[in-house]
Amino acid sequence: MISAVIMAGGKGERFWPKSRKKQPKQLLKLTNDDKTMIQLTVDRIEKLVDSNNIFIATVEDYAHPINSQLPQVPKQNILVEPMGKNTAACIGLAAVHIAKKDPDAVMLVLPSDHLIKNNEKFIDVLKTAKEVAEQGENLVTIGIRPQYPETGYGYINFEEKIDSINGNDVLKVNRFVEKPDKETAKKYLESGKYLWNSGMFAWKVSTILKCMEMYMPELYKGLMKIKEAIGTDKEEEVLCSEYSKFESISIDYGIMEKAESIFVIPGDFGWDDVGSWTSLERINNPDKEGNVVKGDNVITLDTKKCIIEGSNKLIATIGVEDLVIVDTDDATLICSKEKSQQVKNLLKKIKIMKKENYL
């Protein structure tokens, strides 16, 4: 069996004020496809994985809207975390649910809010990742060939080519490295030995659980208790009790930086993590003035290289450049594109000012 786990518990704070507590980035329509990010993700993976074997890991606030947006995914496959504990716990929870169905299943792990432009190439790379995962106790990740010295992504340093499957290179991973500064990112790009870390993985369920037992024993013990309780009247009680004890740590820190037999497959399929408002310039076609405008009630005059997202109110701009302007019913964001990554800091200030109703 091949299964897919789509991680959909993130808040997408850098897309405020569109992204809110009850409607995070993965539930928004950010492209011209008239589908939300999570709907596009599921559409894509359904070409490889039966919808009955697609699992969504999320939190309570998002479970109902996800169920509404994805009627083809069985309701019991929407796994609700009692609290956010980062990706190691999230992946572990999904792994024990899949193991109950098929302990030898291959498990694909995907973010819910990334853009893929070439779906055929993407599926082809995943098929290769599945083959490598099946060949042994291998952990496989998908790396993206860097196009520029990005400082907002983690990187994967690879060694020699091990194999070529279906025309896709299989490379041995040397190490995972954290987000670099600009100069370091330039060196990574020039070396040709680094890939962007996409946060996409493939492994057998038995392999990832064995790694958790070895490198994260406390997490593994708790997961085994949760596994025992699945389908019983104590499932929710045990889940909440054990989850509260889990360390909040990413799968990269908890497993990938410690384990052996890690391989990376480079992917050239038009990937974008759609990480902030400026991403819209990459995934939508700017007009002749370089503006990306969404909404029917926007009028621009002498306006260049701006990102404008309107709702009901008229937005009118004159003589501005390189701005992000986002209007909703109760909040408006205006910032320079250069500072768009600081939206998360703005939300911290909103919390300090006790204006939580805007979050």
UniProtKB/TrEMBL annotation:
Keywords of this entry: GTP-binding, Nucleotide-binding, Nucleotidyltransferase, Transferase
Superkingdom classification of source: Bacteria
InterPro entries reported in the protein's UniProt record: GMPP_N, ManC/GMP-like_b-helix, Mannose-6P_isomerase_type2, NTP_transferase_dom, Nucleotide-diphossugar_trans
Keyword Transferase: yes
Substrates-to-products reaction catalysed: alpha-D-mannose 1-phosphate + GTP + H(+) = GDP-alpha-D-mannose + diphosphate
EC number: 2.7.7.13
GO MF assignments: GTP binding; mannose-1-phosphate guanylyltransferase (GTP) activity
The protein's name in its UniProt record: mannose-1-phosphate guanylyltransferase
Originating species: Thermohalobacter berrensis
